User: Fold this.
Amino acid sequence: MSERNKKTKRDWGSASYSASLERAAEVEQLMRHILALFSSGCLVYRSRDHVAGQVSTKSDRLKRLRTQLDSSPALA
Assistant:
């Protein structure tokens, strides 16, 4: 063990450590919610060539589809 590690004493019961644990739990919960949105199809990540990727919602995709269907001469 290095000399530096021997001198370092951590207070695992401190308020800052407890706050860090709570914050980590909140971040993990948020990440799980975001993953659930992607897995349910409500959010979709679309990567485009030469353009930054973007995230679109289900309603955005439906609006795009309706616009395409409305402007399609074959279906008019």
